[in-house]
Amino acid sequence: MSEFWSDVVKGLTPYVPGEQPRLANLVKLNTNENPYGPSPRVLKAIRGAVDEDLRLYPDPNAEALKEAIADHHDVTTINVFVGNGSDEILAHVFLGLLKHSQPVLFPDITYSFYPVYCGLYEIAFNTVPLADDFSIRIADYARPNGGNIGGIIFPNPNAPTGRAISLAEIEQLLQMHPHTVIVIDEAYVDFGGESAIPLTHRYPNLLVVHTFSKSRSLAGLRVGFAIGHADLIEALERVKNSFNSYPLDRLAIAGAIAALEDKAHFERTRKAVIHSREGLVSALDALGFEVLPSVANFVFVRHPQHDAEKSALALRQRGIVVRHFKLPRIEQFLRITIGTDDQCATLINALREILA
Ligand code: PMP
Q: Which sequence positions carry the modification called N6-(pyridoxal phosphate)lysine (predicted)?
């Protein structure tokens, strides 16, 4: 800590580096990456983009990628924003779209970066408790704080629970708050959820945020996008252009376009993850775990007789990393990313030993 730091910086806690361990041969089931590699067409496109043109700045609007995303989701390019992973887009959303003078709402158990962005930009927030079964209950968002709110944001499916709400419920929320920006973070939607993107045609206050890190196997490339009414997108462009006019580099643009083009690879790997999830859920269930219903590429589980932190440590000693959150109400849960069938089998064998 330095006397030169601002109060905001003094309050920041750096991201735990242990979540990205640098050990070889780990069964890495802690940060919801895809166990399958990206499409070979992505690798080819990136290699193809490694040429003399790297001396030139990339397209400041990443227009070719925006066109590919717009085509894919049946919108136009003025409805598309792209950024370095959805984390960067979410940062712009908090800065530019959610009101700072009134509290922003999100669930009490949700993506841990939301309160971080609020701290960074000095945005007030209120959390809305999840129901007893860890689901988001839309009725609880009806008129908190007398309806005086700065925006609503949550992932669907939610993280780290994996539970999703229906499009009908999202539409109910949009109708409750027609003058409030509502952001649905769909990082995990391709593993069995329903995307709210079609609703953006009818609700100018809805922004849907996606990432290439999960279902497109490109966490290392850092590409995300948001879809919404042109006015919402313009706000994000204004934020971005006020400090960085280049959203993505040439390799990221080339790779992301190729990822969208290879629909067969996307379908195959997405279905393989869903299939492995079904197997993992039954195996965990047979070991006595309570498994929350998940439509994501991870499961959120607790064992009535075994301490979650101890189990996570015992797994780590066996070279398997899963996520444990030391947070009230969920300290007895583990979040486990769906790996390949082999990785899931390794995990189950290790848990069988640990629980014995
Ligand atoms: N939203 C949620 C709910 C997430 O879990 C994550 C990744 N951990 C992100 C957004 C950010 O993903 P990325 O920056 O890789 O796009």
A: 214
